[in-house]
């Protein structure tokens, strides 16, 4: 069972469709880790920790523009982390005509 991971969920990740059922921070939808674990400091500063993917983004000409609300103004080093976050999610454009699914 070791090759299956610690749990069934470890073997799955989300395939992005319309983003309505994917938790931006707590689901694995980009890479093999959650954005919460990769950007823990930013997660601690976000107002809506349960925001779904479709509500925290605006797509303009296939470019992801973050629509995240912070509890306070960010320090310069935290702004750098936001830039890193944007780089991670930039290539993940939604497919509005399909529902999210597990792969």
Helix content: 10-25%
Calculate the mean pLDDT score and round it.
Answer: 82
- Structural class comes to alpha+beta
- Calculate Rg over CA atoms: 14 Å
Low-confidence stretches: none
Find the count of extended strands (DSSP E, 2+ residues): 4
What is the ordering of alpha helices and beta strands?
EHHEEHE
Q: Order of strands side by side in the largest beta sheet?
A: 1-4
Please, how many domains?
A: 1
Q: Please work out how many helical segments DSSP would assign.
A: 3
Gap between N and C termini, in Å?
19 Å
**Fraction in beta strands:** 5-15%
**Main sheet overview:** 2 strands, antiparallel
Q: Which term fits the overall shape?
A: globular
Question: Would you give an account of this structure?
Answer:
The protein is of the alpha+beta class and 103 residues long. It has one domain. It is 23% helix and 12% strand. It contains three helices and four strands, in the order E-H-H-E-E-H-E. It has a two-stranded antiparallel sheet. A two-stranded antiparallel ribbon has the order 2-3. A hairpin with a 2-residue loop joins strand 2 and strand 3.
List the main descriptive attributes of the protein structure presented here.
about 100 residues; alpha+beta; two-stranded antiparallel sheet; two-stranded antiparallel ribbon; 3 helices; 4 strands; about 25% helix; about 10% strand
